[in-house]
Amino acid sequence: MTPAVPEVVLASGSPRRHELLTQLGVAFRVQVSGEDEDSPETDPARLAAELALRKGRSVAALNRTALVLAADTVVAVDDALLAKPRDAAENAAFLRRLSGRTHQVFTGVAAFHGGAEHAAVARTDVTFRVLNETETAFYARSGEGLDKAGGYGAQGLGMALISRLDGEYSNVVGFPLSVVIGLLRAHGVPVWGTVEHAGAPRTGAETTPA
Ligand SMILES: Cc1cn([C@H]2C[C@H](O)[C@@H](COP(=O)(O)OP(=O)(O)OP(=O)(O)O)O2)c(=O)[nH]c1=O
Asked: Where along the chain do its domains lie?
């Protein structure tokens, strides 16, 4: 009996997530839930998991046989959570807050398949150089940070703001590949053309007779 390879549905509008999943050689469809991201949760790791689960749940309900993946990235500095800046002025304020210190990026990835759901969270510590006002204003005006949690993109010009990363880089840009690859393999989806079961528990709903 060969386990069936489920269709993969990515419940995310993030171009970074599309690109990273494509790079793994996974064929997938995009369906976005448009879930509202408000939550009273203040713990960043729990918030990232909760929002990823919320983003994926409604899409999973519409795609019961597929493996549905959703993600959420949360940037935390001290006790504050930095969402996507509203405008360049708020983006500059975020950068001043991050300048010369270490903050945490958490991405929750949720997987839904055969009626079961599961979320895992990755953490990366990111240290910013001390930024002067000219570079803060320049970066904020570039607009690059506006659609990104924390107000910067480590994959773009924002790379120049960072002096150190502790943890997985792909997690910072919104899709921790170690977690994603583990989830794909656990559900029998080939990564780079290879099916390699991670040994995670499989439910009857995930297998069909060959
Ligand atoms: C810190 C950081 C965040 N980001 C991005 C990743 C996410 O797309 C975004 C965080 O917002 P999210 O709410 O996690 O995701 P999204 O709104 O872009 O997409 P969707 O809800 O449809 O899945 O910030 C970067 O691209 N680079 C970075 O360095």
From this structure: 8-199
Q: Which class is 8-199 in CATH?
A: alpha beta
- Decide whether any atom of ligand 1 lies within 6 Å of the 72 Cβ: yes
Tokens 């000219």 — which residue? 134
pLDDT in tens, 37-75: 789 999 999 999 999 999 999 999 999 999 999 999 999
Ligand 1 pocket, 16 CB below 6 A?
A: yes
Q: 67-77 and 8-10: which strand pairing?
A: parallel
ipTM over 0.90: yes
Ligand 1 atom at minimal distance to the Cα of residue 174: 6
- The Cα–Cα gap between 88 and 139 comes to 9
